[in-house]
Amino acid sequence: QVQLVESGGGLVQAGGSLRLSCAASGRTFSGYAMGWFRQAPGKEREFVGSITWSGGITYYADSVKGRFTISRDSAKNTVYLQMNSLKPEDTAVYYCAAKAGLVGWWVVDEYGYWGQGTQVTVSS
Question: For labelling, which of 27, 85, 87, 96 has a CA lying 20 to 30 Å from the CA of 61?
Fold first, then answer.
């Protein structure tokens, strides 16, 4: 049974940084893509970025490119989202997700496994 557990959210001032972690368990994730998504109040869940578990290839939404970095530690089965230069518009619940296969990595409905989410609030 796949489990994804996010941690690291919190309150930060604009311009600050946070690092989110996603601890993954329940299977080997070779051939999987691990994604980060976010959902602000009243808005749809949106793609933030993703990483291929095996090759470490990353993709980012234009809104976070150059500010956010995704990495993974295979030994710890953990994926990270380093968020720098945070803006108030980054405020949202952030979710970690996993999908088999490496296509459609930006599509919410492609992901079959989700964490519970962690709140990130950026004050101005």
Answer: 27
Residue 20: per-residue pLDDT? 98
Angstrom distance (rounded) from CA 13 to CA 76: 30
The full 3-state SS of 20-84, as one line of letters, equals EEEEEECCCCCCEEEEEEEECCCCCCEEEEEEECCCCCEEECCCCCCCEEEEEECCCCEEEEEEC
Strand, helix or coil for residue 12: strand
What phi and psi values does residue 11 have, to the nearest 5 degrees?
A: -105, 130
Q: How many CB atoms lie within 10 A of CB 22?
A: 26
Please report where in the chains the tokens 């690291």 appear, as a residue. Answer: 8
Task: Give the pLDDT of residue 90.
Answer: 98
By three-state DSSP, how is residue 39 classified?
Answer: strand
Half-sphere exposure of 7 (CA within 13 A, CB side): 4
pLDDT tens digits for range 86-97: 999 999 999 999
According to the model, what pLDDT value does residue 103 have?
83
